[in-house]
């Protein structure tokens, strides 16, 4: 058969044209799939790249101590349902001016719901509920009452799921949430960084010994048959070896957890609130918190009334003489008496961690001051 260049062109030209089109289409499709992939919250590959580098020095620390994930979690965090803060709902009332029309941006603000710009990341039993409820009275703050546990337990549900949990907010309002387990969960700093590297992080810290006892008290209220605090504290009681895999002990090693956060966020983006001062001087701590968040100092002493029977500040309306509202009975439980020798052993154990923590934060929380 004779070769015909005309026939050849008729056949080749259209086929390469189609191939080119297909190629462009494939590229567009890949880009589109990648965009969707990122938008639904799986972009953790991005910080993970950074994370891999940053983790090198951290690996040591984590191998030495036990990671939060590997903790002997007798406290069963899964069941750690905090109250939803409804106690103070009526006080909050009309201070929340909602603007349902707030719509701007693709990622952050569709339907007037925003991803949180500030999160209370810990610590468990530090006073996180009180702080969130104080903040929820602020007209420039909108916060979800329940703990979303997005960055530790629900991350696979994606950012859209998370945002949908948030209350609607207007442009000038800050969206917030609190989940105290974030502070000690290894994966969380990278994930929050991935959502927004500008997220403001608040940690309410409390004397780690009292915190551990409070944590234990909560667990015992749900599971009365658990072993004594004293026996759980030690790996080997006669040798006096503290069990750092017990989450009640591990959470209080604040400096160790902070190292992980500082691999992603600068210190200026973290605020440490004293759990003790939140009780003795709530207005003072709230001034620091409001300044940190860049909102007006609205929640002042006028909002607090100390209830001597409860031993805690309760919230009141600044005007009028309506009854102050206190947090529910799961806050401020009576702690069991713990063997003073065990308490002292724990104090000694935490001392170097506390010292390091004071140095890192530039603030002496006074937990070791009696010695
Ligand atoms: N205003 C006010 N009212 C009641 N309780 C207050 C308040 N401020 C701080 N606290 C302390 O908060 C402790 C509970 O901490 P959290 O809210 O972080 O607990 S949780 O992790 O959410 O379960 C809780 O701990 P316990 O006293 O051990 O129960 C309180 O000491």
From TrEMBL:
Keywords: Disulfide bond, Glycoprotein, Golgi apparatus, Membrane, Signal-anchor, Transferase, Transmembrane, Transmembrane helix. Residues 57-86 are annotated as: Disordered. Pfam families: Sulfotransfer_1 (PF00685). Its EC number is 2.8.2.-. The keyword Glycoprotein applies. Belongs to the sulfotransferase 1 family. This is Sulfotransferase.
